Amino acid sequence: MQEKLEQHAAEQKETLKPYELYITVTRHGPKSGPDEGLSKSGAEAVEEYFQDAYEGVPIDNSVPREVVSSPKGRTIETTDRYQKVLNAQNEAEVKPVEIDERLSEGVHIIQFIDSLPKEEQRKWFKHWFLAEKTDIPNVVLGHDIVKSFANWLLEKVDKRKREGGGLEIDAFSHGPLMAA
Question: Of 37, 78, 88, 109, which residue is most buried, by most CB within 10 angstroms?
Fold first, then answer.
C-alpha cells in the first residue's frame, strides 16, 4: 500500500507545472436591503474604495485574470464598479464576469433567520453555521457553504497546478460566506 501511495505522489509531482495563483475575495458594498442591490451610498462607497485601493497600482494585462462573482445583484454591481475603476485609472482589461453560486451564502438565508425565535435572530450566524439540518426549503447551511467554497478554491488551485503559469482571480462574495 505504501509503495502505491509513493508511486501516486511521484506521478502527481511529475504532472504539476510551475505556477503562481493569486486569489482576492472581496465582499460586496453596502446594500439597500437583505436581498437587494447596492444602496446609492453603497455604490459610491464601492467606487471610492476601489479608486483609493488601486490608485497608482500598475496592472499587467499580460497576466491572465479571472473575475468571478456570486450571482446576487449586489455582488455583480460591486464587480462591475471594480472593473470600471480598474479600467479607468489603471487601463486594466475588462474581463467577462464568471458567475458561480459557490461564492454565495445561498438564496434563502433570510428565511432561515426569520425562522429563529426573535431573541436568537441576532445570533443567526452561529445557528446557521452550526445547524446540521433545516426544514426550510432551499436554505444552504453554513457548513455546506464552507464545503462548497473550499471546493471552488481547490478546483482553482488544482487547475492552475495542472496548467502551470500565472493567474489572478478577483472574486466577489458575501460577509457570511467569508466569515464562515
Answer: 78
